[in-house]
Design goal:
Blueprint: H1 3-17, E1 32-36, E2 39-42, E3 47-50, H2 63-75, H3 85-97, E4 102-108, H4 111-126, E5 131-134, H5 143-147, H6 150-153, E6 165-168, H7 183-200, E7 207-210, E8 213-214, E9 220-221, H8 226-236, E10 240-244, H9 259-262, E11 269-272, E12 283-288, H10 289-295, H11 309-324, H12 327-348, E13 352-358, E14 361-366, H13 375-387, E15 390-391, E16 393-395, E17 401-404, H14 412-426, H15 429-432
Parallel strand pairs: 3-15, 5-6, 5-7, 7-10, 10-11
Antiparallel strand pairs: 1-2, 2-3, 4-12, 8-9, 11-12, 13-14, 14-17, 16-17
Helix pairs in contact: 2-11, 3-11, 4-10, 7-8, 12-14
Bound molecules: 4'-deoxy-4'-aminopyridoxal-5'-phosphate.
Amino acid sequence: ENLIDVSQTILNERKQHLGKSLSLQYQQPLHIVKGANQHLIDAFGNKFLDTVNNVAHVGHENFNVVKAGQQQMALLNTNSRYLHKNITTLAKELLETLPEELSVLHFVNSGSEANELAIRMIKANTNSDEIIASEHGYHGNTNKTIAISSYKFDGKGGKGKPQNTHIFPIPDTFRGKYRGEDIAKKYAKEVQLLIDKIHKQHKKVGGFIIEPIISCGGQIELPQGFLKEVYQKIKNAGGLCISDEVQVGVGRMGKTFWGFQFHDVVPDIVTIGKPLGNGHPIAAVACTKKVAEKFANGMEFFNTFGGNPVSCAIANEVLKEVKRKKLQENALKVGEYLKSELQNLTKKYTIIGDVRGQGLFLGFELVNKNLNPLSEKTDYLINRMKYYGILMSSDGPDRNVIKIKPPLTFTLENAKEVIFYLEKVFDEDFMKHN
Ligand code: PMP
């Protein structure tokens, strides 16, 4: 059978049978059939270096993770109503990476479910679901998580901000509302204004949610001191803080295992998703004892798949692999190298306006002299990099930020390859004229 025909048939069948709001990457979509660590292989045998997938945390089709899943699947898979050590082992292993205050876990199946549960916990604790969140933030695809995701309700097809959601300006120090001096304080003050507004409406503050690096917003690093100040303000108002670690957690930040640790704060609730199952759907909510106890008000929390022995076996192996292969250290080493090489490129290519991020969670932004976004060039760059066998993705409200968030098995050689081809594309005519 002709492989081009097979790809075309799949494309046609998708169009015919799947919802139109599902999108495909690339003008000419890829037909990927195999993963191998930080590489993906298409139906034609072409090999691509993957700088996009922060789900395949310990490498696509990681041998030990696959084996752990296969073995447990052959033995038993049930819900969590029987005693099984996989779930308690996973709870203990995760808690070991978290501050003491965070001592209770609930397991779910996706980042959206984790944030959904976190919001329920807030409601159970504060009797309020007035939620404060960042502009351009994304926290999931369910009703409530869409309702707190400005990335969605302010974007295409969105219906605007719901009444009980309160949005502060994205704390972007490069192209945001405030730049320059005292920036953390200025952005934190915006959060205080929202707290005051909620109080003026004679309502209580429920909680605050943010990612330690705002991913969909364009890899926006929070200014140092911002989170600490905001957490205190929320606490003073009687609200709870969620750290959405769905993208950045489990060692990706390099310097710290969790993103909130980078900002020296302790959230009331931490949501964990993507990397935990290395592609298998498992996610988790960690919270304080106090939060968990208020949530357990008599109503059972049942989740058919959450915390099943197979998912837990997989997650346990993911955590082991991170340790065994020193992947957090690797994220730091390779990430810092890549970031500094990208910073070097800014000297030669002025359209790279800003390079940012931590560990293997980086971004760079393409702008003209007036800091206006160059989304067409960003799209061009991504398609040219694909031609050279490197998968990259873009995001941000103006689609002009290239995100780099590969499997943590990414090597220095891989980073060099990315820089080599980036230079090649930046030297092309289309990229030169502003
Ligand atoms: N939070 C963040 C920060 C995310 O990036 C995502 C997914 N992109 C989610 C939550 C939702 O996770 P999921 O798609 O697993 O439901």
